[in-house]
């Protein structure tokens, strides 16, 4: 993990390096993904079964592609009951937080007889993708599904890859049951995204697809956008810690490593005003690497995308944080709340020494599906609004329209749209 002086040059180099992780950079995989999508779109279940056998070494057919009630019951038996209870607590925290995001339809009635308003309704069918592969993440199930349930989505479809034995990770299945998933299908990869985007004989077409995945899943979501709504094209995980001399080096090191273990492309960055803290954190990281699992992944992540920057002052550190616009931002300073007021770009902000990033990943309640690769400059965490659609309502009386019809006609004529103008004018002939 390199230690550098924070300057315009080193910050620019960092931002350029981080952009290399953008899913849009992996154009060499696009043709593969597009071929998968086209095949699933044309051949439906047949293509899905073939890809599942090829990539997951699992033989599917119309009778076993959907997870059964018995399989869900079996999954409960395979898990530690204490873990099941923890997932239930987490789901409740997520529900309570997202309930506060709900908005209601509204109508504004004016004295001139005009009525304007907005009708807010949930989408009908939501699709969620849950990875298998290197690791299964029941927490992502909860984070994707609970906001949809709070929004009022009636049908929630989940796709997740099976193992060679044809079974789905038990933690994933139990989380899906707790969160309220309607149906689960044993399909992974780009073929799962295509199946949900266009529908097959077994898998229904959905209105929106959310959830993380590998580069093939990300590119498939990108390619299907427009035929179906998506949450975002998520990049690798990232954490930025802004700290001063009051921070505990051991805590900071542990928090940086908590993201570096996700995969080789994960980014872990410390920006500090204290050279001593920078050195202490570097030493603590070396110590932790001797104790932790997934050490090979962590080392590759830190070698490629791990940085410690020493800033002249806290204003410079904050400027860097706003430029990086990290998915996760921890502020561990003497007065973290004061520093927070200067932050403009971050997916989620964690304040103080005891608000470690995994608190948000698993339990606190705010969503952990967050904008990555600097998209926190214009994207938000997954939320209830992502599962709602808004319709405008317009009603004018003759008297209300009479007062403004000449203005509307003038506007239409200036744009050369005489039929638009005529649509208004005929009502006052």
Automatic annotation (TrEMBL):
Question: Which source organism?
Answer: Butyrivibrio hungatei
* Recorded GO MF terms: histidinol dehydrogenase activity; NAD binding; zinc ion binding
Annotated protein name in UniProt: Histidinol dehydrogenase
Can you tell me which residues bind NAD(+)? 129, 191, 214
* Chain segments annotated as transmembrane: none
Listed A to Z, the keywords are: Amino-acid biosynthesis, Histidine biosynthesis, Metal-binding, NAD, Oxidoreductase, Zinc
The enzyme's E.C. designation: 1.1.1.23
- Which annotated residues bind substrate? 237, 259, 262, 328, 361, 415, 420
What reaction gets catalysed by this protein? L-histidinol + 2 NAD(+) + H2O = L-histidine + 2 NADH + 3 H(+)
Q: Which family does it belong to?
A: Belongs to the histidinol dehydrogenase family.
**Which Pfam family, any one of them, does this sequence belong to?**
Histidinol_dh
């Amino acid at each position: 993990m390199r230690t550098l002086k924070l300057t315009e040059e080193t910050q620019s180099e960092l931002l350029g390096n981080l952009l290399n992780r953008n899913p849009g950079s992996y154009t060499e995989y696009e043709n593969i993904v597009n071929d998968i999508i086209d095949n699933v779109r044309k051949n439906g279940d047949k293509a899905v079964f073939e890809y599942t056998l090829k990539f997951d070494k699992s033989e599917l057919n119309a009778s076993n592609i959907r997870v059964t009630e018995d399989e869900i019951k079996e999954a409960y038996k395979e898990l530690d009951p204490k873990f099941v209870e923890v997932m239930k607590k987490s789901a409740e925290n997520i529900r309570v937080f997202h309930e506060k995001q709900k908005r209601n339809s509204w109508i504004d009635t004016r004295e001139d007889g005009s009525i304007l308003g907005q009708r807010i309704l949930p989408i009908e069918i939501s699709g969620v993708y849950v990875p298998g592969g290197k690791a299964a993440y029941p927490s992502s199930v909860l984070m994707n599904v609970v906001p949809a349930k709070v929004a009022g989505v009636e049908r929630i479809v989940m796709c997740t890859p099976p193992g060679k034995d044809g079974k789905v990770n038990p933690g994933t299945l139990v989380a899906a049951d707790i969160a309220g998933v309607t149906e689960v299908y044993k399909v992974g990869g780009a073929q799962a995204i295509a199946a949900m985007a266009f529908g097959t004989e077994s898998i229904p077409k959905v209105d929106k697809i959310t959830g993380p995945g590998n580069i093939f899943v990300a590119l498939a979501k990108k390619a299907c956008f427009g035929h179906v709504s998506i949450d975002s094209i998520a990049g690798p995980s990232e954490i930025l810690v802004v700290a001063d001399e009051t921070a505990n080096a051991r805590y900071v090191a542990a928090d940086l490593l908590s993201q570096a273990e996700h995969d080789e492309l994960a980014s872990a960055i410390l920006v500090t005003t204290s050279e001593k803290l920078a050195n202490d954190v570097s030493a603590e990281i070396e110590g932790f690497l001797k104790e932790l699992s997934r050490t090979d992944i962590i080392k590759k992540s830190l070698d490629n995308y791990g940085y410690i920057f020493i800033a002249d002052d806290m204003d410079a550190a904050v400027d860097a944080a706003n430029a990086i616009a990290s998915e996760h931002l921890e502020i561990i300073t003497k007065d973290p709340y004061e520093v927070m007021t200067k932050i403009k770009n971050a997916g989620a902000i964690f304040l103080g020494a005891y608000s470690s990033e995994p608190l948000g990943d698993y339990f606190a309640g705010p969503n952990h599906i967050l904008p990555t690769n600097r998209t926190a400059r214009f994207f938000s965490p997954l939320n209830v609004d992502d599962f709602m659609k808004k319709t405008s309502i317009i009603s004018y009386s003759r008297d209300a329209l009479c007062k403004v019809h000449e203005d509307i006609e003038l506007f239409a004529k200036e744009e050369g749209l005489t039929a638009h103008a005529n649509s208004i004018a005929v009502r006052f002939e």
